[in-house]
C-alpha cells in the first residue's frame, strides 16, 4: 500500500515534468526550423564560419558607410574601422572577412551590399600576399559568401537539431563557452565575438599574440616564440591560377559599383631583421591587380613598410599593436589621395 501511495505522488509529478520538457523541446523544434540555417551554422560551423556569416548579414543591411573596406582577414584583423573613421572624419565600415572567399567571394559581398544599402562614396579593396596562394578546396567558402548558398546543410543534422538549438542559441548566450586559444581569452565565446564584430564596425583584433605584451616595442618571450614559429618560414607567395581566375567576378562587381571610386591597398607581411623587404613585389602585384580589376592605376594606395615583426600574430594578421600602425598608415594615404 505504501508503494502504491508513493507512486500516486511521484507519477503525477513525473507526468508534469515530462509535459514541461515536451513543451520546451517542441518550442525548440519550432524555433530551430524557423532559424535552421543559423542553428546548423552554430552547431557544426567554426568561428571562421561565424565571422563570414556575420559579415554577410551586415552586407544585407541596413549598413551605411561613407567608406567601405572589402577584402581578406588581414583587413578584418589589421584595419580598425573606428580608428580610421576618426582619422578621416567620415564613417567607415569594414566588410572584410577571410582570404578563403577570394575575389569572387568579395564580389558576392559587394553585390549584396549594393542591392540592400546606399552606395558608399568610396570603396577600398584590401589584399594581402598570403591570399594569392588560392587553392581549389577554398571554393566552398566562395559559395558561403552568397546569401543563396548557406552552409552547412541544416537537413543533415535534423535528428539532434532541437536539443542543439537549446544549447547553441539559448544556453550559450548565458553560459561561458570560450573560443579556442587567445580568442577565448580576448572575446569569450562565439556570441561575444559576433557582437564585437557588429559593434566595432566590422573589425576584430587577432589575439593570438600581443596579449602578453604591454606595448609595440616590448615583445613578451611567449609572444616572441609564437611569432617566430608562425611567421619566419612564410615566404611571399606567387598568385595561383585559381586566384587569377576569380578576379573577373570582382572586376564585374567593381564596374557595377563604379570603378572611379574604387581604390586598392595591400597590407604588409612581417619583416624580420636582416631579411630583404619585398616592396618591389607589392608594387608589381598592385599594378597587376589594377589591370585585372580595371581600376585606375592612380587609385593604387602606396604599399606601407611593415611594422615591427613583434606586432604580428601570423604572416597576414597584425596583432592589436600592429593594426594601430597599419590603420594609421592607410589613413595617411587616403588623406593624401583626398588632397590630390
Main attributes?
340 residues; single chain; Rossmann fold; mainly alpha; 14 helices
What order do the helices and strands come in, and which of them pair?
Blueprint: H1 2-34, H2 36-44, H3 47-59, E1 67-71, H4 73-78, H5 81-88, E2 92-94, H6 102-116, E3 122-127, H7 139-144, H8 161-170, H9 181-186, H10 190-199, H11 221-231, H12 241-257, E4 262-266, H13 279-293, H14 322-339
Parallel strand pairs: 1-2, 1-3, 3-4
Helix pairs in contact: 1-8, 2-8, 3-6, 3-10, 5-14, 6-12
What does this protein structure show overall?
By secondary structure, this protein is mainly alpha-helical. The protein has one domain: 3-Layer(aba) Sandwich (Rossmann fold). The chain contains 14 helices and 4 strands. Strands 2-1-3-4 form a 4-stranded parallel beta sheet. It is globular. It starts with a helix and ends with a helix. About 3% of the residues have low confidence.
Tell how many strands the DSSP assignment holds.
Answer: 4
What's the N-to-C terminus distance?
Answer: 97 Å
Question: How would you name the CATH homologous superfamily?
Answer: SGNH hydrolase
| Coarse morphology | globular
How many structural domains in the coordinates?
1
**Which class best fits the helix and strand makeup?**
mainly alpha
What's the CATH C level? Alpha Beta
Secondary-structure element pattern, one letter each: HHHEHHEHEHHHHHHEHH
Number of helices: 14
- The CATH architecture assignment turns out to be 3-Layer(aba) Sandwich
Query: Nearest-angstrom radius of gyration?
Result: 24 Å
Average pLDDT works out at 82
List segments where confidence is low: pLDDT < 50 over at least 5 consecutive residues. Answer: 151-161
Could you describe the largest sheet, including whether it forms a barrel? 4 strands, parallel
Strand content: 5-15%
CATH topology: Rossmann fold
Widest sheet: strand order?
2-1-3-4
Q: Report the helical percentage.
A: 40-55%
